[in-house]
Amino acid sequence: MDKKIEQLKCFESSPKGENSTTNFGVKISNDENTLKAGPRGPSLLEDFVFREKMTHFDHERIPERIVHARGSGAHGYFVSYADHSNLTKASFLSAKDKKTPLFARVSTVQGPRGSADTVRDVRGFAVKFYTDEGNFDIVGNNIPVFFVQDAISFPDFVHAGKMEQQNEMPTGGSAHDTFYDYISLKPETAHTVMWVMSDRGIPLSIRHLQAFGVHTYRLINAQGKSTFIKWFWKPLSGTLSLLWDEAQKIAGKNGDYHRKRLWDDIEAGDFPQWELCVQILSDEIIEKFEFDILDPTKFIPEELAPVTPVGRMVLNKNPDNFFAETEQIAFCVSHVVPGIDFSNDPLLQGRIFSYLDTQLSRLGGPNFNEIPINRPVCPFANTQRDGIHRMTINKGGANYFPNSIDGNYPRPKEEASVKGGFLPYPEKIDAVKTYKRSETFNDHFSQATMFWNSMSQHEKNHIVDGFSFELSKVTRRNIVERVVNEFLINIDKTLAEKVGKNLGVTVEPKVTKNIQKKLVKPSPAISQVNLLSGDIASRRIAVLIFDGCDTEDVMSFKKEMEKRDAHVDLLAPSNAPVRGCDGPSLTPKSSWVSEPSIFYDAVYVPSCGQESLELLQHNGDFLHYILESYKHLKTIAFSGCPSIIKETLRLKQDLGLILGQGWRDVVEAFTYSLAHHRVWERESLASTIPA
């Protein structure tokens, strides 16, 4: 054993006192910027330092994805709203009502495949369009910006955010030392960290995710005109989130909560839908911006550049086999079709290389495109042959170009006559090779402040709570103090003071330079308060039934809610049928304990007789159900039994705690309250209620 330990010590490496080098010992002069053709130019393939670092990172895990390992997916289709050929020659956007099959995958970033769905994290949102010109992938997130500006920093960010290397904890979360050590030393992370610490980091469900392409892309029409754009996915169900206490409890009760809710909705025929939108960035609009559209840490508020819907996505079929489809699907930023091109965003430029490199490792070689879920629906032909897992049986005698044996096929057409072929935008490049970053990327805190200023009061409270919780898990006091005094203080003084107070940190800002902020005016389109759907379609309602409840009341309320396209489940003290006071027995879906209030958006209690009322007043499971729902600011309606609220629980009545005599008395108020998602005015009071 001692001999083995000595052997292992030969491979130990300490970072102290060492200069950065490549794996072959070449000293690195710059480890934060890729080599580019000019500060705002494209990244260069000759940058061997970046390629070595990214290649090693891409191959660190097999076969699980390094990031985005925990995911859920579904098949669907996209329908174009119109002929958008004025913007792009991409075929799937070329005609009104044109339908394109697709597969979408939504994932957390940090945790492994076995982690929980409801952790605080960024959600990946990737869509593969099987167009008649080839596969096109939009590989985005539910947050419109990213932590770092240059792809060479991506491995460092992921290493810092992942489970700590000495103990592989925590699973699926960022509440630990290395994450906050990194972000507090990397000011460019400020904007994205604010989004993650907000309610956006704990979405209610997959169908309630707003998503973004993050980067700036080009659309190119048949005349060769280029237009910069940003991709947006807007959910038709509204953008909604969990509360932090809910998210944690759901993680313990059902780690597959988001996956199951998506699966159940599709199986029930209640198909999630999103609008695909573009933010069109004309030269006139871009000139007005006080930030760089190539900077992936910057967001373009809708007030500065309106969002135009171009089509609708519907997810309508669950996978037949999770591994074969959801796990083996391979998204690549480099999967574009004619009419769509890249910008010089240095993070995007690195992802173009990284995603393909990752699939080569994870899926066993260069033929991952032949796995059924990845195959295009259009014909494909080239001179690529052989390799592990080759499925195509290529006929003919030549596997090279040019050739005379097979009539010189397959071959490209001459550029001037290419019909529908991919041609990059002929951007003129005349620059000096450099590791420098464009000075237009230097403003790191303005948009983080804009995000804070755009939040409603309860959303600001949740951000304070998010930072307070996360930093309470950081064991090194100097890191906590640095986050408060050198990071949060530069976003907003009130934010820093409130978080500092919760952590016992005195706010003493260490100003190293005068930070000039631009564009801090609120953007109403960012706040989730303004992103509600306006209805209760797809919302989940728990109806608590029990012996002696009014059967007609139960069934009438259920029918009324289902007319509004809500999901209604009958839940009882156990899985056994209950005896109604006025008719046949009712069969519950499950019990109050098996399907707790955290799985539902609202609760309804039907009317009942005095005997049943007395039993409910002493039933701990029932009282806990109501208290927990109240604590989580949910709509609760009693069509009778007011004494439980007024005398037993002594809860303060509000717009979301509705008392009546029969279902007709409460149905409209119930619908109105649920359509507003939560009873936010209850929050300060509810925080004192144990549950």
From TrEMBL:
Purpose: Occurs in almost all aerobically respiring organisms and serves to protect cells from the toxic effects of hydrogen peroxide. Catalyzes the degradation of hydrogen peroxide (H(2)O(2)) generated by peroxisomal oxidases to water and oxygen, thereby protecting cells from the toxic effects of hydrogen peroxide.
Name the UniProt record assigns to this protein: Catalase
PROSITE patterns: CATALASE_1, CATALASE_2, CATALASE_3
Entry-linked InterPro entries: Catalase (IPR018028), Catalase_AS (IPR024708), Catalase_clade2 (IPR024712), Catalase_clade2_helical (IPR043156), Catalase_core (IPR011614), Catalase_haem_BS (IPR002226), Catalase_immune_responsive (IPR010582), Catalase_large_C (IPR041399)
Family named by the database record: Belongs to the catalase family.
Annotated Pfam families: Catalase (PF00199), Catalase-rel (PF06628), Catalase_C (PF18011)
Keyword vocabulary terms for this entry: Heme, Hydrogen peroxide, Iron, Metal-binding, Oxidoreductase, Peroxidase
Enzyme class: oxidoreductase
Requisite cofactors: heme
MF-aspect GO terms: catalase activity; heme binding; metal ion binding
Binding site for heme: Y355
Active site annotation, chain numbering: H68, N141
GO BP term (any one): response to oxidative stress
Top-rank taxon, per record: Eukaryota
One Gene Ontology cellular component annotation held by this UniProt entry: cytosol
EC number(s) given by UniProt: 1.11.1.6
Catalytic activity: 2 H2O2 = O2 + 2 H2O
Domain (Catalase core): residue spans on this chain: 21-409
